[in-house]
Amino acid sequence: MKKNILIVGGSSGVGQKLARHYVTDGHTVCITGRKNPNLEGARFQPLAITENTSDLIREIDQLAEDFPIVNTLIYAAGYLQRGHIDDLGDGDLQTMVNVGLLAPMMLVQRLKRSTSNPLKIMLITSSSQYTPREFEPAYCATKSGLGMLGAALVRDGEIGKVLVVAPSRINTPFWVGTDENTETMLDPEWVADQIIALSSGAFKYKYAKLFRNPARSEIVECLDNSFHQI
Question: Taking the domains of the chain in order of start, what are their residue ranges?
Answer without folding.
Answer: 4-223
